[in-house]
C-alpha cells in the first residue's frame, strides 16, 4: 500500500510524498536538539565559573542576557536571509557559530570572553531556531501547532539527554573541557543535518479547514500595522518573562531555597534535586510544545493560550509559596516548564495563520524579539531578590504577567483575530516591493 499522499493540486512533474515533509520535520528537530544546551545547560556552568574566577553571580548572568538578546534581536535580520537564501545555508551557518561559541567559552578567562561566546552563540542559535521553525510553518499549514511544537520541542527537551553527561563531565574534567567537547559535538551534528533541509515547492501543502487562517501573505510592514500583531507581541512578552527567569535562575533559586543538594531517593536511583529537576523540566518543556500545539490545532490558539497561561501563572505562584519543600520544588518547576514551553509553538503557529508564510521569516523574527525583552528581566530578577531577600517577590510579579496574558487571550484576542481574518479576505494580494524591483531590474 502506497504511503504517498497528495496534499494539493500538484504541478506537472512533481513527485510529492507525505513522508517527505515528515523527513523535513525530523531533520529540523535534530538541528534544534543540537542547539538546546547553549541555553538550557548554562545554569550548570554558572556556579563553576563563579567558583573558579570569583565574579559576582549577576555579572556572570549578563552573558545569558547577551545570548538571548542577540538570539532574539537579530531574528528579523535572520528572517530576511531565511526568506532569501533558504534553510540549508542558514542552518549550516548557525552550526558553525554554535560550535565556536562553546569553544570560546572553554578558553575564556575574563567576563568579556564569556560575553563574546554568548554573542556568537546567540547568532548561531537564532539562525538555526528561526530557520527550523519557519520551515515547519511552511511544510505543515494544516498542522502548524503540532509541527512547530515538535520542532520547538526539540529545542526545549533537547538537553534532557545531555544534562547528566554534561554535569558528570563538569565534575570529572572541569567546565572548560566540557564546553570544548560539547561545542564540537553539537556544532558538527547541526552542520551535517543542515544539508538535508529544503523549503516546500508550490502545490506541496494545503491550508487548514479547522482554524481561522488568512489566505493572504502579509508583508512585514503590513503585519506590523495591524492591531493583532502588537497584541500578540504584548502577550508574548508577558508570558516569556517568567519562563526566561526560571531557565536562567533555576539553579540559583534551588540553592537559595535550600533544596539544591537534597538527595531524591526514588528507590531505583538517587539523585540530587537540582539535576533531577533540570532533567524533568527539559522533558516537560519539550512535551508542552507539541502537546499544546496539537491541542491548538483542534480547539484554536486562543482557548489553548488561556489554559496554558493560567496554568503557568498559578504554577509560579505555588513555586514561590512552597518551593522550600524539595518535592514541591521538583513538581512545581515541572509544571512551570510544562505551561511555559508552549509559547514557542502557539505564537509562531498563530503568526503563520494570521499573516501567511511567504514573509513569515521576517514577521516572526520581529515578533520573536519579545523574548529579548523578557531576557532583560533576568539580571533584574537577581537585583530584586537581593533587595527584598526573597524570590517570592520576583515570582509573584512574573506570575501576574502570565495571568494578565491569559485575560487578554480570553477577552481580546478572539475578536481581534476574527476581525483580522475578515479584513484580510477583502484585501488585495500583498505586493513584495523588493521582488517587484528585482523583476524589473
From TrEMBL:
One of its GO terms (cellular component) is membrane. The keyword Transmembrane applies. The chain crosses the membrane at residues 21-42, 62-82, 89-108, 114-133, 145-167, 179-197, 228-254, 266-284, 305-322, 328-351, 363-385, 391-413. Residues 23-417 form the Major facilitator superfamily (MFS) profile domain. Keywords: Membrane, Transmembrane, Transmembrane helix. It holds the Pfam family MFS_1. GO terms for molecular function: oxalate transmembrane transporter activity. Gene3D superfamilies: MFS general substrate transporter like domains. PROSITE patterns: MFS. It comes from the Bacteria. The keyword Cell membrane does not apply. This is MFS transporter, OFA family, oxalate/formate antiporter. It comes from Ancylobacter rudongensis.
Amino acid at each position: 500500500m502506497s504511503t504517498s499522499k497528495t496534499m494539493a493540486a500538484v504541478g506537472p512533474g512533481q513527485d510529492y510524498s507525505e513522508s517527505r515533509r515528515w523527513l523535513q520535520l525530523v531533520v529540523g528537530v535534530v538541528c534544534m536538539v543540537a542547539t538546546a544546551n547553549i541555553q538550557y545547560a548554562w545554569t550548570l556552568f554558572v556556579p563553576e565559573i563563579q567558583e573558579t574566577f570569583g565574579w559576582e553571580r549577576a555579572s556572570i548572568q549578563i552573558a545569558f542576557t547577551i545570548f538571548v538578546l542577540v538570539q532574539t534581536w537579530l531574528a528579523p535580520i535572520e528572517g530576511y536571509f531565511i526568506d532569501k537564501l533558504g534553510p540549508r545555508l542558514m542552518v549550516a551557518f548557525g552550526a558553525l557559530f554554535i560550535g565556536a561559541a562553546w569553544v570560546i567559552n572553554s578558553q575564556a578567562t575574563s567576563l568579556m570572553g564569556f560575553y563574546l561566546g554568548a554573542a556568537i552563540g546567540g547568532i548561531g542559535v537564532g539562525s538555526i531556531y528561526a530557520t527550523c521553525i519557519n520551515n515547519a510553518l511552511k511544510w505543515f499549514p494544516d498542522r502548524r501547532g503540532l509541527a512547530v511544537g515538535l520542532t520547538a520541542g526539540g529545542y526545549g527537551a533537547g538537553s534532557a539527554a545531555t544534562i547528566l553527561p554534561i554535569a558528570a563531565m563538569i565534575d570529572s574534567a572541569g567546565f572548560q573541557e566540557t564546553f570544548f567537547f560539547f561545542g564540537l559535538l553539537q556544532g558538527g551534528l547541526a552542520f551535517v543535518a543542515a544539508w538535508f533541509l529544503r523549503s516546500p515547492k508550490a502545490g506541496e501543502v494545503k491550508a487548514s479547514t479547522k482554524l481561522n487562517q488568512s489566505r493572504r501573505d502579509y508583508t512585514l510592514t503590513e503585519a506590523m500595522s495591524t492591531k493583532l500583531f502588537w497584541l500578540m507581541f504584548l502577550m508574548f512578552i508577558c508570558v516569556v518573562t517568567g519562563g526566561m527567569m526560571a531557565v536562567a535562575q533555576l539553579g540559583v533559586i534551588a540553592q537559595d531555597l535550600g533544596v539544591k543538594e537534597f538527595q531524591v531517593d526514588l528507590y531505583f536511583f538517587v539523585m540530587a534535586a537540582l539535576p533531577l529537576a533540570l532533567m524533568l523540566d527539559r522533558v516537560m518543556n519539550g512535551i508542552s510544545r507539541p502537546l499544546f500545539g496539537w491541542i491548538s490545532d483542534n480547539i484554536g490558539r486562543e482557548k489553548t493560550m488561556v489554559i496554558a497561561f493560567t496554568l503557568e501563572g498559578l504554577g509560579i505562584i505555588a513555586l514561590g509559596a512552597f518551593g522550600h519543600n524539595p518535592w514541591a520544588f521538583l513538581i512545581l518547576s515541572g509544571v512551570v516548564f510544562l505551561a511555559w514551553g508552549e509559547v514557542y509553538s502557539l505564537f509562531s503557529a498563530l503568526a503563520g495563520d494570521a499573516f501567511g508564510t511567504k514573509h513569515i521569516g521576517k514577521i516572526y523574527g520581529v515578533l520573536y524579539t519579545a523574548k529579548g525583552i523578557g531576557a532583560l528581566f533576568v539580571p533584574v530578577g537577581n537585583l530584586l531578590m537581593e533587595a527584598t531577600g526573597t524570590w517570592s517577590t520576583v515570582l509573584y510579579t512574573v506570575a501576574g504577567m502570565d495571568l494578565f496574558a491569559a485575560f487578554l487571550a480570553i477577552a481580546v484576542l478572539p475578536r481581534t483575530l476574527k476581525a483580522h481574518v475578515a479584513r484580510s479576505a477583502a484585501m488585495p494580494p500583498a505586493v513584495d516591493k523588493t521582488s517587484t524591483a528585482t523583476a524589473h531590474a
